[in-house]
Amino acid sequence: MSPRQSRAAARRPARISEQLRRGDLLAADCPSRDVLKHVTSRWGVLVLIALEERTCRFSELRRTIGGVSERMLAQTLQWLEGDGLVDRVAYEVVPPHVEYSLTPLGRAAAKRVRALADWIEVSLPRIAQKWDERRATTGPGRAR
Amino acid sequence: MSPRQSRAAARRPARISEQLRRGDLLAADCPSRDVLKHVTSRWGVLVLIALEERTCRFSELRRTIGGVSERMLAQTLQWLEGDGLVDRVAYEVVPPHVEYSLTPLGRAAAKRVRALADWIEVSLPRIAQKWDERRATTGPGRAR
DNA sequence: GTACGTACTTACGATTAGTAAGCAATAGGT
DNA sequence: ACCTATTGCTTACTAATCGTAAGTACGTAC
After folding, report:
1. Strand A97-102 relative to strand A56-57, pairing
2. Which of A133, A143, B16, B94, CA to CA, is 20 to 30 A from B34?
3. How far is the CA of B94 from the C1' of D2 (A)?
4. Confidence band of B134 (pLDDT split at 50, 70, 90)
């Protein structure tokens, strides 16, 4: 029995307490889909990576993460905070001062996210090569 | 000098050939953002996980991945194929028979994606606990 | 007094995702 | 003969989501 098969077998365990059961991302109605949505969202990935390096203020994150809007950054941070991955500390001063950092749970998530992100950055040349090959036969324009 | 710092320093190497340069996901206009979009898309993650276990036909994938529509599955597969992560083999028969599998590049990506997915599935109870705590103070309703 | 910085929120138009239906060609049931 | 089902898509249409721009409150600097 391979590790994969044992994992598949464990996917629906026989009636363990609902609160302790692991998620199943392949199931449409599993709450883990919400976590996946937050963590792998366009900006969620980059927020986790940025916060893994250091605690940041809102506007620091905005400057670090190229192209993010204030609206989406705020929403993403609220998602991640709600999942217990990001910690928000606000100082009651003017102008406002808010610091965002990763919780232990968030650091664990960021580790996996960064592994993926690093792979993408390193593999980009090989993937871009595919784009070029395809463009040579299929005509110009990269799939968005 | 920490590994993180050295990585940050390597982010903008001094004029190596453009074709060989690694991506920078924090830069708004870097093409690696497109790869990230495809790989971390709602269905891209699940396609990679499903195909990591075995080669699948289109409709097998549709049944395996709960909640995916034919439209989005087709589009996701085309993205991943275009990035060279998924291989598509069509047999000219009726009814049509098409098999999807991972390329070596796709298997490398799937490995990282599954590490993240596994973490989410296992960590779901701890995250759901956060939701419960928050719901107790903030009122009902989970952040989507 | 005008401009700027901070951390948001709120409207609104633009992009994207999801739903349902269509298609082509064959096999199987009644 | 006819109706239905299957497969792997694509094409309209609609609903959700995203990005842009602006507004807010309060203080400091020019």
Report:
1. antiparallel
2. B16
3. 20
4. confident
Is A100 in contact with A55 (CB distance < 8 Å)?
Answer: yes
Domain membership of residue A6 (yes or no) is no
Which residues on adjacent β-strands are paired with residue B97? B91
Residue A11 lies in a domain: no
Measuring alpha carbon to C1', the residue closest to nucleotide C4 is A95
Under 8 Å CB-to-CB from B132, ≥6 apart: which residues? none
> Which structural domain, as residue segments, surrounds residue B61?
27-138
Mutate to test the interface with A, among B11, B114, B120 (most CBs of A within 10 A): B120
Q: Is B22 exposed, middle or buried (0-12, 13-18, 19+ CB in 10 A)?
A: middle
Q: CA of B76 vs C1' of D16, distance in Å? A: 19
Q: Which two tokens stand for residue A33?
A: 């889909």
- Within a domain: residue A106? yes
Query: Does residue A88 sit in helix, strand or coil?
Result: strand
Domain CATH code at residue A60: 1.10.10.10
pLDDT tens readout for residues A29-52: 999 999 999 999 999 999 999 999
Q: Where are the alpha helices (DSSP H) in B27-103?
A: 32-39, 42-53, 58-64, 70-82
Calculate what percentage of chain B has a pLDDT beyond 90. Answer: 70
